[in-house]
Amino acid sequence: MPNEASFAGARAALAMLHALGDASADDALCIFLLSGGASAMMELPLDEAISLNDTVAFHRALVHSGASIVEMNCVRKHFSAVKGGRLALAAGAAQKLSLLVSDVPPTHLDALGSGPTIGDPTSVAECHEILTRYGLMEKFPASVRRFFASKELPETPKPKELTTRVCKLVDSDEMAEAARRHAERLGLYAVVDNTCDDWSYDAAADYLLKRLRELRREHSRVCLISAGEVAVRVMDASACARGGRNQHFALYMATLIRAEDGPIAVLSAGSDGIDGNSDAAGAIVDEHTIDADNLRASALRALAEFDSSTWLSRVGATLVTGPTGHNLRDLRILLADAVN
């Protein structure tokens, strides 16, 4: 979530760019380094009357809404004084180069960090549609509701209004491909399938487990790799205990795996080493994670209470790596060995 340092960082960046004054493209070059996490690490409401506490509540409501990262960042762009191309706009006529380490879908680089240096292809109308579809207005503080309800809500700078060179350094596709190459070196039949990127966690789990079973009919040792994110909608934010989307996905997957599926193992983890509000990157489950009726009942209860990390920690299934130093979205790996 944003904090005082997020506001201070945004103000400092804007002040640095405004100091360029009327510098031309021949006089000044601005290099922007962007990675995942920028949406929270640098933030400043377009409406100066909105407080830090209300900004945190706004971000929390978005994260718990079940919206995709692209949808969340569409809303953030229209809320912020530094997102949706507004940071680059502050650099005036100076040359601009953005270097990206991406944690967003490869076709939506403007969503990275809510696109502070890239023209925004989304519109106020799309923003309002997302707010309505996820019922977000009633979850926002009064100051944020007033801001979005204003008939004078300003549009973000569009791609044609900004001239910014963009260079993507690495993204989730390259992470998945690296995993595929490694799996093949281990003698596994490896497949990358990102079809379920931005799906709900349950639909993604159903799809991937079905795909793994299909591949296993033709290959004895299989590695199915899926990069991207899944959505978990938290109906009541106050009910959220410990966990994140990866552990929620993994725990739900454990409830789906049957004994006859074994040997099978499923990993779901955040590439940054942190999943939600827990200290784990994610979790690893197999056909033995839930092997008793009482465990199944408690697992289903943990899912309902959004307390996946507590349950998975209790059975030793969490994956703890510590911060990795990068952020390339989430990685899911499904392994199936030959049936004895």
State the gist of this model.
This protein is α/β, with parallel strands linked by helices. Helix content is 37%, strand content 15%. The longest helix is centred in the middle third of the chain and has 16 residues, at 201-216.
What does this structure look like?
The protein is of the alpha/beta class. Helices cover 37% and strands 15% of the residues. It has 12 helices and 9 strands. Strands 4-5-9-6-7-8 form a 6-stranded mixed sheet, with helices on both faces. A 3-stranded parallel sheet has the order 1-2-3. The longest helix has 16 residues, at 201-216. The mean pLDDT is 94.
Observed structural traits:
single chain, 340 residues, alpha/beta, Rossmann fold, glycerate kinase, domain 1, 2 domains, six-stranded mixed sheet, three-stranded parallel sheet, 12 helices
Provide the low-confidence segments as ranges. Answer: none
Q: How many helices does DSSP assign?
A: 12
Biggest β-sheet strands, sense, barrel: 6 strands, mixed
Q: In terms of structural class, how would the helical and strand content be classed?
A: alpha/beta
CATH architecture of the largest domain: 3-Layer(aba) Sandwich
The figure for the number of domains is 2
CATH C-level name of the largest domain: Alpha Beta
Binned, the helix content reads 25-40%
Q: Could you say what the CATH topology of the largest domain is called?
A: Rossmann fold
Overall average pLDDT: 94
Strand residue content:
15-25%
Biggest sheet: strand arrangement: 4-5-9-6-7-8
Count the E strands.
Answer: 9
* Overall shape: globular
- Give the C-alpha Rg: 22 Å
Please, what is the CATH homologous superfamily of the largest domain? Glycerate kinase, MOFRL-like N-terminal domain
- Determine the N-to-C terminus distance: 48 Å
